[in-house]
Design goal:
The complex is a heterodimer of chains A (401) and B (325). Chain A is of the alpha/beta class. Helices cover 42% and strands 17% of the residues of chain A. Chain A has 14 helices and 10 strands. In chain A, helix 1 runs antiparallel to helix 4, helix 3 runs antiparallel to helix 4 and helix 9 packs parallel to helix 10. The chains are: A alpha/beta (401), B alpha/beta (325).
Amino acid sequence: MTKLFPVQEIGSLAKPKWRTKGLRQRLSSEDLSEAEEWAEKLDIQDFHDRAKTILKTGDDRERVKAVLELSTLYGLRLFETTGVDNDGVGGEQQRVEMYEHVIKAVHGMNLLGHVHSFDNKYFNKGVAESKISRKHPIYVTEFLDVKKYAHRAVKVPITGPYTLVDWSFNGYYIQKQHASSPKTRKIEAKREFLLDIVEQIIRPEIRNLVDAGASWIQIDEPAVTTHPEPQEMELFVEAWNETVKGFSCKFSDHTCYPSEIGYKVLAEYAPKLDKCDQLALEFANRDTSRLGLDEDSREGYSDLNHFVEAGFSGEFGLGVAHVHDFTGNVSPGAGKSVGLDLIESPELVRDRLLFAAKIVGDPAKIWANPDCGLRTRTWDVAFAKLANITKGAELAREAYQ
Amino acid sequence: MSPEVQLAGIHPRSERLIELTRSYERAKASWSQVEIQLAQETKEVIKLQESLGFRHFSDGSLAWQDQLRPITRSLKGVESGTRYSRWFDTNTFYQKPIIVGKISASEIDPKNFLRPELLTGKRDRKITLPGPYTFSQLSENKHYKDYADLLIDVALAEREIIWKLKSEGVTLFQLSEPCLVYQPYREIFRDQSEVDLALRAIRSVVDASPRDFVVQTYFGDAAPLLPELLDLPVSGVGIDLFETDISSFMQEKTSKTLVLGVVDSRESFVESPNWIADTARKFSDKVSVRDLVFASNSDLKFVPQEIANQKLEALSKASELFEGS
């Protein structure tokens, strides 16, 4: 029988200080003390040999390569140690972040500066200044390192074309439009920009990854629920179907933090997505922090009904752990709040999985994961959250035995 | 007189301030360092408005983490901090207010809203607040059985907050009501009774001093609602010209000020002063107004600061061109 409620990561982990500093300058043995502590926890047996290489080399490129490889190895081992079944790419240690990492590899785009996202979080927003093309492969080097070290299944998260366009200024593409209405100009510019991103950037990237052995690609599209108007959703479906056309690997979508009506609209269009085997979605953020299998306690998961009603027949990656700051109350047994972190208890994870399985009607279709990448949490917190997700999944499995 | 130019919400932070707030998050900078930079940049935003000939001055709300938070934190019966939601169709988020009890104004600290000490010498001060309808629509109601009661309680509490801010010298309040015109949140188009309710809530905020208020709409087409908006007892009404179909206006006439959102806060391309003035002229041909104000269609925080400042400069030049036409 296939394992019920397998656990997956969604993408990013925080970058350790030694990884960030090591990309900029030479490291001292003191800089690597944190890495040494984690080496024991994660059973990195050749840490000292690797540390020696990093400390000894005077060649910047060699150091950067060794630091990136080591941080990828750490990310993979963190996932493995916590019991995660699919290790992704080890926490995206080789990427700046999901948007900028891609934009820097695109001819014709320029990063204009940071704009506010929330609290003290920002992103560096790009603009298309001319017709775009790919400078170089974006994810393949990372994937080859992952392939070398992963002990478990691997999924490659990539940033989706709709999100790349939605998070960018249209610039060149809007200036070449001639419609008199500003609104129409924007829509026409977006479509042209989007189809260029698919053809020039994303499809060549998927081709490279598949040729290198990738068998599962997660397309991150957090922006898709931003514009729930039919013409935008149809644009998203058109871009998705164009993206996956002709490839035979597994594809999944990750979407999070929708607008009020977001998931309902995504549900309506999800069955139209070709080859979309899984939707990995954020739910814990909108759920209560108390135990229970009743609808009130599990209010955050009610949107799953929309997907079932719309006839989406694939798997669900269920967000069962919050990934942002938390300052609310936690009921007894549901977890603990430490500073700005919520560590969900295994029992809360179990209840969320069982409730979702009831709605979906088939526990074999449910994966457990955090709402989104864990890059905003420390490694200690990410470790605790993932460990409790795997324990919670085990408890949910027991309920089916 | 040439059209006045105004800030219409939160101004973006500079790269320097962004870096400092990030360092603060990583415990590499102290909050006092952040505060010093915030004060410095607030002064720069005020200075920029002076140099561009603004008549109403805003402090730029640089410390605001989202458009709702200062109000949220000033209300009894409202909690937040557990859930983030997307701000309309942008890539920015707000802490969702969760209504857990009867709403009323709590102890109001004006420092959560503006920096009056940095606006010294500025007689006309402007602040942008979410209107009662938008605030209530973007909140999660876990207490009120009747939405009308919730909305009116938000309005009454907001009126108290505004009263307090008046004592800090604020003379112009922009009540932002994007939810009146933004449709995709809605599964069913709001019916007339809800519009009436929303307008009643706005009236109960503004009725003591209607001249001190403008109601700003954005991210949606204001044309269908314009006659009713113009009936509100406020000095001005704002519309987003990137969403509003001005060709549908039928030679309207009003004694109110119209705030034209005529630069796009969600696109980096800086509109030319000629295009802005020309667009405003096309609008004037359709709607006869007492005064025009030029502004961005919403908060400029969606573009980097340098671009935002260029857009303000373009508005200022366009205002001169418009007057000369």
